[in-house]
Design a protein that fits this description.
It is a single chain. The protein is built from 5 helices and 6 strands. With about 200 residues, it is an alpha+beta fold. It has a domain of about 130 residues. It has a 6-stranded antiparallel beta sheet, sandwiched between helices. The radius of gyration is 46 Å and the shape is rod-shaped. The protein starts with a helix and ends in a 67-residue tail after the last helix.
């Protein structure tokens, strides 16, 4: 069983949880848990603080718009859990500019449900702490297999092999080399031998 399947099975049957989903986005995967009862915000704030994070209100202004317009400009997120945030970040968050965080709390715009959205593994761990479920970290990714470097194969040139000749064949002879006379040097003719008569 994969880690994701195990988590879906662990949380699906906890009292107060309506649905557990693994949601894929182009920006990254998220882990959503839909609750059938309101979250205990005091308990959640305590867990968030103990883990070294802050819970920031989000989308206060867009949430007050009429429902039709609110659905276009607001995705139902009411709180964002972040590591650190400035005063300016809090202000822009209330206007609907979402800060980067590890988790979000949203309300279903078409129903009474609250949804906890874990943006990464830290968000999942925080959710488990809130639910009182033992958190098991995912196994580390497998190490890439590095092939051992193969020693270079030496290039061996084949030695010249003498070609055997047939046994009854005469050895090949090379024609004699005749030196050509140099036209710039005068030629001397050998003296003629006199015939001797006896």
């Amino acid at each position: 069983m994969s880690q994701l399947e195990q988590r879906l099975a662990e949380l699906r049957f906890i009292d107060g949880i309506e649905k557990v989903e693994h949601v894929r986005f182009s920006t990254g995967d998220q882990f959503w848990v839909r609750f059938i009862r309101p979250l205990d915000m005091q308990k959640l704030r305590h867990v968030v603080k103990n883990r070294g994070y802050r819970m920031v209100k989000f989308g206060g202004l867009p949430s007050k718009l009429p429902r039709g317009l609110g659905e276009v400009l607001w995705n139902g997120v009411t709180h964002v859990i972040v590591k650190e945030i400035s005063g300016w970040g809090r202000f822009t968050s209330s206007l609907g500019f979402e800060p980067d965080g590890i988790g979000k709390i949203a309300v279903d715009l078409h129903g009474p449900f609250q949804i906890f959205m874990a943006m990464n593994e830290d968000g999942v761990q925080l959710l488990y702490d809130y639910l009182g479920v033992k958190y098991v970290p995912p196994p580390p990714p497998p190490k890439p297999v590095v092939a051992a470097a193969k020693p270079p194969i030496p290039v061996v040139k084949p030695a010249a092999v003498p070609v055997p000749r047939p046994p009854n064949q005469a050895p090949a002879t090379t024609p004699p080399v005749v030196a050509k006379a140099d036209p710039t040097t005068p030629q001397t003719t050998p003296p003629e031998e006199k015939a001797t008569t006896t």
